[in-house]
Amino acid sequence: MKNIQWYPGHMAKAKREIGEKLKVIDIVIELVDARAPVSSKNPMFNEVIKNKPRLIVMTKKDMADEKRVAYYEKYYRDQGYFVITVNLKNFNEYKKVIDLCKEVLKEKMAREAAKGLRPRPMRAMVIGIPNVGKSTFINKIAKRKATVTGNRPGVTKAQQIIKVDKDFELFDTPGVLWPRFDNEITARNIAIIGSIKLQILPLDELFIYLMEYLGKNYPHLLKDRYNLEIDFEQDWLQRCFEVIASTRKIKPNRGDVDYDRVMELVFSEINDGSIGKVSFE
Ligand code: G4P
Fold first, then answer.
1. 261 in helix, strand or coil?
2. For 195-214, how does the pLDDT look when each residue is reduced to its tens digit (9 = 90+)?
3. How far is ligand 1, taken at its centre, from the CA of residue 251, in Å?
């Protein structure tokens, strides 16, 4: 696999910006993709978050393998995170996330009240790598609510805040984290789940990896969707292309299988969920 560019500059900037905003928020809602909940989580974030409560929202529940989801819910809970798994496309599912935040912060707010501090709304920020559902989440809330401009120290003027209800406010701009590429598998996973542009990876290598993975872990989905059974004998890959092209009626290109079209089709069906429920780790 081609070396993927690592941008320390982006990382440092994101870290600084999130660190700034953190001063005025009570909880960070960290979104990860339930299909690759470790690869889609940026470890850099732990260095910034310090003593804030740690909440992980695994999105795209509808596209992920339930058994793997259950495994990773426990995996993160065992590490001290609060965890919730959601399908953000479901009507009102975002509310479960708000409710969990309130639950997590209940004690903190009660402590402040006991000290005689003025009651105030809890304030949250959404962060995550690209494509994990940050804007979907924020837009669902924003559509129903008015935004107010932040006027606390450290909040830039332009920063809008969405008043979710009298107890809860949310920054309307998410913290975008640069995905991590610390090993090949992570890089491949985040490419497959759509968090980095496929063009920056060698598509054919990614496709081989994907077919091998699906053939070993989800053979029934390949059978259902493409009538494909991979035997991993010699020429298995060529057969994958041929079978998919034939099942899905992809026209040949100059007499040969249109390899690019086949790969595009499979990647897009992974990402719109039509292949079925798949997890990559
Ligand atoms: P981002 O801000 O973190 O980059 O992610 P964004 O909200 O743009 O979401 C990326 C894509 O993932 C969007 O699809 C969005 O609809 C989809 N998505 C987010 N959460 C879920 C979920 O829980 N389940 C499913 N099935 N999809 C989810 P898109 O095709 O790019 O846009 P759209 O056509 O849906 O508007």
1. helix
2. 987 777 789 999 999 999 99
3. 30
